[in-house]
Every structure is written in C-alpha cells, then in structure tokens.
Sequence to fold (371 residues):
Amino acid sequence: MNKLLIILCLGVTISACNRTDAKLSDVRAVKTVTAVSADAGMVMAFAAEIQPRFSSELAFRVSGKLLSREINLGNHVKRGQVLARLDPADLKLSAAASQAQVASVEADYQFAKSELERYQQLLAQHFVSATAFEVKKNAYEAALAKLNAAKAQAAVSENQANYATLVADYDGVITAINADPGQVVAAGQAIIKLARSEALDAVVNVAESQIQMVRSTKRVQISLWAQPDKIYSGHIRDIAGAADVASRTYVVNIQIDKPDTAVKLGMTASVIMYGSDQVSSNAILLPLTAVLQQQQQPIVFVVNADNHIQQRPVVVAQYREQAVVIASGIQPGERVVAVGVHKLRDGEPVIPIAEGSLFANDSKAGAPVAE
Fold:
C-alpha cells in the first residue's frame, strides 16, 4: 500500500513538472534594446575612414636600378629626408662626359674669340677686308652658342645625377611602397606614396537619397571606433559633384578641425551629422523594427520590471532608414522590444534578451524568439 502511494505521488510530481516545463516553453523570448536619448536634429550617422587630404606618389625623374630604400611602410618622415637611392654609376659617367664636352667646346670658343680680336685689329689697320672680319665674327658667335649649349647639357646631366636620390618634399607618413632594392625602375614610375599627416579628413560614402540631407548639415561630430568616448568636431569640406560609377554613392570629405595623435591614417570612425546647432534631449532613438503601426497609431512594447510587455502609443518625430526618432511616449532607460512586435500581445509575459547577445549561449535557450 505504501509503495502504491509513493508511485502515485511520483507520478503527480512528474506530471506537474511537465506542465510547468510546457508552460515555460510557451513564454516568448524577445530581443530588447534600451531607449537612449537622441538629438532630434541629427541628420544621419555614417561609417567613415580617416584619409589624408593631400598625398603624393613619389617617383625618380630618371630610370635606373634601385640601390637602397631608406624607409619602411608607416614611417614618419621629415621634409628633405632621403627616401631611396638609385645606382648613380651611369648618371655620373654621363655627367662626366658632359663636362668633357664643355671643355672641348670651350677650347674652340677661346680660339674663335682670339681670332676675332686679332682680325678686329687688322681691320682697323686696313690689312684685311670687312668680309674676312665677318667670317671670323660668325665663327665666334657659333662657338659661343655651342659653348652655351654644352654648358646647359652639362647642367642637365648634373641634375640627373642628383635625381638618383629621392627625398621627401614635405613632412608626412609613408602609406605605400611599390619597389624594393634590386628592382629596375623607369622614370616617373611610382615608388613611394607619401601622405601629409597634418591635414586629415573623415571620408564617407553617401547614397543618392541622403545627399540632400547631408547638404543641410549644420554640425558634424566624429568619433574613432578605437576610442568611441572621444568626440572630435568637424565640418564638411567638399561633396563630390558626381556619384561613383560602381557604387552610385557620393564621396563626402569631412575635415577634422583639431586632430590629435590618436587620429591615425586608415582608422575607422563614426560620423554623426546634425541638421541644427541646437541639441534636444527629449527625443528617443529606437530601431525601426521596434515600432508597430496599429490603426494608424505607432506603438511600441515596453518590458516592465516583472517581464510583462505593455503596449505604449508613441509620437514619431522622424523616420530614418534604420532607426526612428520618438518625440514622446518613451523615457530614457526603458526596455523596448526591438523585433517581432507584430507577434506580441499586450500584457504577455516574455523572456527579455538584450540585443547583441548570442541566443545560443543564453540560459533560456528553450524559449521561442519573436522575430
């Protein structure tokens, strides 16, 4: 008899546990976001890349074999610093040949000059004719012209010998290297890319539908992904006059007003553009998927402290491509259902999951998710 009672009790307990598990499995898990204050005048947010405003591809003016490279990728260089050198042997030989040509032509010039002076004295004494004097004068002028041409060619050869050394034209950072020692390079072939580090821009690509909003921007803030807590002010420097053929986006260059050493070339940044100079703290920014239209009234679902959802009407100030600005109806810090709002009912119990967490790692992985 006692064994029968124990078996019955165990059966009732197991049945109750099964009903409890089934009841828990019916509770829907929802992804939630925390309502945060937003600027109602904010136009849009973009991902940007830090790029130099000025950069140059440096090349040798003469061809030759690259003898040495004095810098590496990412090095900071000063104006006048040697970057690379060519083998100067052939250039020096060419310069020496030009100097020898100058010496030869100069000897002919000195002879023509002395002949002209001698014939000028003979002409004054009527020992030679004017025609003979004119011949010597023409010979002198031809010798002088040949001398000037030889000196100019020698100067060119001397400059070419100096062109075997590539120097930095300004202070900057080496952003690309396209040749290594031992390689034969042609005149004008890009060897090194040098970017000025004192003037930096945050470059963004803006879609056609957003370009008019960008043009009306009054204030710009930039933050680095590496240091999101630090905000830099900036302003739009220029907007591309035509869209890119491949991406159909417009390139917008945003000048960083006061960059510091934390801002480095190639970094990724967030750019926020504001349509007004005034900041409003009453607006709330939510994902676009958190708002549900019900009988022409936008509503959201707020998760209470007891994990039950409450339907709440809101006033929308602005719709954007991926977000919505709420003018009233939500307070900062409240938890709002982010997705799947069309499947929810007012007062329904839920299991809130913070947006961005991996549901597979959640302790309540058996609950269905509203999506």
In short: The helical segments are 2-25, 89-124, 130-162, 211-215.
